[in-house]
Give the backbone structure.
Amino acid sequence: MSEAILSVVNVSHNFYTKKGMTIEVLKNMNISLYYGEFLGIVGQSGSGKTTLLKIMAGLIKPTSGSVFYKSKPINGPTPAISLVFQEPALFPWLTVLENVVLALKRFKELSREEVVERARSYLDMVGLSGFESVYPGELSGGMKQRVVLARALVTNPDVLLMDEPFSNVDPLTAVSLRREIDMLRAHETLPPSSVLLVSHNVEEIVELSDRVIVLSGRPAEIKGEVKISMEKPRDRRSPLFYEYVDAIFTLMS
Ligand SMILES: Nc1ncnc2c1ncn2[C@@H]1O[C@H](COP(=O)(O)OP(=O)(O)O)[C@@H](O)[C@H]1O
Ligand SMILES: [Mg+2]
């Protein structure tokens, strides 16, 4: 049994509306993200995936239960855990380079030159070399998401959490972004150790994950788990791929 880098223990979460209604979003969740794994979590829209990721990143305190990073409880955001949101959130008044540099603000031991150097190398890695001085408004959705990825990785996080990162880019760009994420994973010297991707898109989850956790509709509970043993890159038209997709749809319904 391998060890968990990030674990969610008995987490439940409710939202309370102004009219005094309680919305149960997550119900008694137990999830372990192991060292070195690519975990996928799939659930319908509105099932609570974004809420779960925000809890795992330390951005929201759950109504009950705890999250542990390397066996220590998380009480707020930490640079060891990066979260990529569904909407590429970049500062429009800063260049691409400065958006990535900003993520290194807390690294006081690095000089301005080192920070810039490091930001450039991560931009290069995501295929944005030459776009350093461009402003986000001039970029396509896919390019913005690449900047977001560079910004998430530049701090050398141990854990990368991704919230439907391909849902706001056109389908062709999504194909190349997925391939790039696969390639970054194959790069041994590169962090993060572990990746968690949440999505409502079953094919996307099967294409990238080593293991998939299937959520029910709201309140989200774990319906089951599927291990994916398939070489990468994975062929979406292969019979085995379909078997996995089917198995997951069966668990979802
Ligand atoms: N800040 C909030 N206040 C009240 N309800 C919320 C809030 N955030 C999310 N919700 C509700 O919680 C449920 C789950 O939302 P979310 O985690 O965004 O699901 P998903 O990411 O799976 O689409 C939805 O019904 C949503 O309307
Ligand atoms: Mg969401």
